[in-house]
Design goal:
The chain is an all-alpha fold. It has a domain of 74 residues. Helices cover 49% and strands 0% of the residues. It is built from five helices and no strands.
């Protein structure tokens, strides 16, 4: 078993990922620590879709949208993501937003012990 990354004091999102580590691919908490900007953008877009009344959506669609938008922006930020991140981000979103149960369809991923 790999060691969990050191968590910034009081970071509830990383604590959620750590406390549910068997739901994610190994190393996800460390990935999240280094890629918080991806989570923030993913959560923002998922919240927009939810607020428009959609009750089922695709994490892949959100990631492709983020890749497209950042590629066209002048911010200098580009999302270069392995598609493996989409399942973990969807699972984290469902844990962080239990009121959105069923919004993303999740499957058991290789390396995790259970589905979200």
């Amino acid at each position: 078993m790999s060691a969990q990354p050191s968590l910034p004091f009081g970071d509830p999102l990383l604590a959620l990922a750590r406390d549910n580590a068997d739901t994610f691919r190994p190393g996800f908490a460390g990935w999240l620590l280094e890629n918080r900007h991806v989570w923030i953008a993913f959560e923002r877009e998922a919240n927009k879709v939810w607020a428009k009344g959609r009750r089922h959506w695709s994490a892949r669609t959100i990631l492709e949208y983020l890749r497209h938008e950042t590629a066209l922006s002048d911010s200098g930020i580009e999302f270069r993501l392995n598609n493996n991140a989409q399942g973990d981000l969807a699972r984290l979103y469902l844990l962080a937003h239990p009121e959105c149960a069923g919004f993303f369809e999740t499957r058991l991923q290789a390396g995790s012990e259970r589905a979200a």
